[in-house]
Amino acid sequence: MKDSIECLLLDAKNLEERSRRINAKIRKHVASMGECLRVIRKAQGLSLRETSRLLGYSAAYVSDIELGRRKATVKFLEEFFRKIK
User: Cα 38–35–83 angle (5° rounding)?
Assistant: First the structure.
């Protein structure tokens, strides 16, 4: 019985560590996507405020996406690539 509980605890710790590593990779990619969106916006000569007005989102929301603090929704990305060319 004791061995079974120890195995379960070990499995739980391993899963927690794997989850932590996966989340770190996801955060890295989210930040990278935001950086790409910022580069595209700046290449078009648009300010953050101009972009937010054009897309219909607040400047804070767009900034959070660019900085990787928030995940971009599919709707946001569709609007971005449709309106920012």
Answer: 35
